[in-house]
Amino acid sequence: MHALLSSTPQPDFVLNLHSGASLTAKALRMSIDEQVPVGGMGDLSSALSLFLVREYVDPETQFRERGLRQHRRIAGFYRLDGHKYRIERYNLSPLTVIFIYDYELAAEAIRQAYLEYGTFDIVVASNPNAQITSNATDVANQLGLEVHKWGSFLSRLNYEHRKK
């Protein structure tokens, strides 16, 4: 990614053709720092409709970050990885959160996130129509994590985190 983004001319968009492929934290940070979006064919199609392709942000990230920016308790947030954020809050300890956009948040998705992203405090089912299975809640509890839908997560941001 470094060689690609330091080339001349610098690209306006990096097309990732592998379906479901994820960026490394370092590649994501470079993409954000250099203002060069990375995405699939659908993302590229949407980006090409903009006056400046570099301003493209995928709809899921737009939704998530708009909600975080508008929350009164949040002092700032930092995208650590594709779906992992550190959220700084006024007068409360920071939280590390994973957002999963599955329609049905199942135990396997939480286990995979734990394996892929390491330590975090909260899993958020960020799809507005998401259902959280009881097995997912059980696995989250076993791992010492909280699991929330978007609305309950926004409310949860107002309280101190209690490690289990």
Count of alpha and pi helical runs:
7
Q: What's the end-to-end separation, in Å? A: 39 Å
Mean pLDDT: 89
Number of strands: 9
**Total domains, how many?**
2
Biggest sheet features: 5 strands, mixed
Structural class: alpha/beta
Shape: globular
Query: From the alpha-carbon coordinates, what is the Rg to the nearest angstrom?
Result: 17 Å
Strand order of the largest sheet: 3-4-5-7-9
Bin the helical content. Answer: 25-40%
Strand content: 15-25%
Unreliable runs: none
Order of helices and strands: HEHEHHEEEEHEEHEH
Structural commentary:
The longest helix is centred in the middle third of the chain and has 12 residues. The protein has a five-stranded mixed sheet, with helices on both faces. The chain has a two-stranded parallel ribbon with strand order 1-2. A two-stranded parallel sheet has the order 6-8. The termini are far apart. The protein is of the alpha/beta class. The protein folds into two domains: 54 residues, no CATH class; 98 residues. Strand 3 and strand 4 form a beta hairpin.
Any key phrases for this structure?
about 160 residues, five-stranded mixed beta sheet, 7 helices, two-stranded parallel sheet, globular, 2 domains, alpha/beta, single chain
Concise summary:
The chain is of the alpha/beta class.
Layout of helices and strands:
Elements: H1 2-5, E1 14-15, H2 25-34, E2 38-39, H3 41-48, H4 59-70, E3 74-79, E4 84-89, E5 92-100, E6 104-105, H5 107-117, E7 122-125, E8 131-132, H6 134-142, E9 146-149, H7 150-156
Parallel strand pairs: 1-2, 5-7, 6-8, 7-9
Antiparallel strand pairs: 3-4, 4-5
Helix pairs in contact: 5-6
